[in-house]
């Protein structure tokens, strides 16, 4: 009975599998292992290899892009520096041209002012001479008329009139 109990106890123990189950499990595991090794593992390896290539290629492309970006940045900075230099030279040239134009306008204005002043001076001098001549003639006529009345005789002689007027004006100028 004990052996039956032992045999019954062994059969009833759920922790110990049956030998047939172990063999069937081993065969199923072996078949599954072979199918996975031949069909699935190469696909995984291929996917991993593609992914690795893609990552490495992406890294290489990123490095190339970074190098190109750095080169473009250097070129941009060089162009910017050239543009700044050119702008500075244009500003300097414009300043010089502006100063030259201002100086030219100043010289023209000075020449025009000098010309106007000389013209005005000449006009003033000619008007002064005309006024002086007119004044001499009027003063001479008035002086001659006055002298004729004082002396009581006519002083119609032009030469005499002219000497009297000149002498009168000289006396006037001396008295100033």
Automatic annotation (TrEMBL):
Alphabetical UniProt keywords: ATP synthesis, Cell membrane, CF(0), Coiled coil, Hydrogen ion transport, Ion transport, Membrane, Transmembrane, Transmembrane helix, Transport
Pfam families: ATP-synt_B
GO CC, alphabetical: plasma membrane; proton-transporting ATP synthase complex
Chief localisation class: membrane
Membrane topology: Single-pass membrane protein
PANTHER family in the record: ATP SYNTHASE SUBUNIT B, ATP SYNTHASE SUBUNIT B', CHLOROPLASTIC
NCBIfam families for this protein: ATP_synt_b, PRK05759.1-3
Assembly: F-type ATPases have 2 components, F(1) - the catalytic core - and F(0) - the membrane proton channel. F(1) has five subunits: alpha(3), beta(3), gamma(1), delta(1), epsilon(1). F(0) has three main subunits: a(1), b(2) and c(10-14). The alpha and beta chains form an alternating ring which encloses part of the gamma chain. F(1) is attached to F(0) by a central stalk formed by the gamma and epsilon chains, while a peripheral stalk is formed by the delta and b chains.
Function: Component of the F(0) channel, it forms part of the peripheral stalk, linking F(1) to F(0).
Protein name: ATP synthase subunit b
Gene name, Swiss-Prot/TrEMBL: atpF
């Amino acid at each position: 009975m004990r052996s039956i109990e032992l045999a019954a106890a062994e059969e009833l123990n759920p922790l110990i599998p049956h030998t047939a189950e172990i063999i069937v499990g081993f065969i199923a595991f072996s078949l599954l292992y072979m199918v996975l090794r031949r069909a699935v593992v190469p696909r995984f390896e291929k996917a991993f290899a593609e992914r690795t290539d893609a990552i490495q290629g992406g890294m290489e492309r990123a490095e190339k892009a970074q190098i190109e970006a750095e080169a473009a940045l250097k070129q941009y900075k060089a162009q910017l520096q050239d543009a700044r230099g050119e702008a500075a030279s244009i500003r300097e040239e414009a300043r010089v041209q502006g100063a030259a134009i201002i100086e030219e306008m100043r010289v023209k204005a000075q020449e025009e002012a000098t010309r106007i002043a000389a013209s005005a001076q000449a006009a003033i001098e000619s008007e002064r001479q005309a006024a002086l001549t007119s004044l001499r003639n009027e003063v001479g006529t008035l002086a001659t008329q006055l002298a004729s009345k004082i002396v009581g005789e006519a002083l119609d002689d032009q030469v005499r009139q002219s000497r009297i007027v000149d002498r009168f004006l000289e006396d006037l100028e001396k008295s100033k």
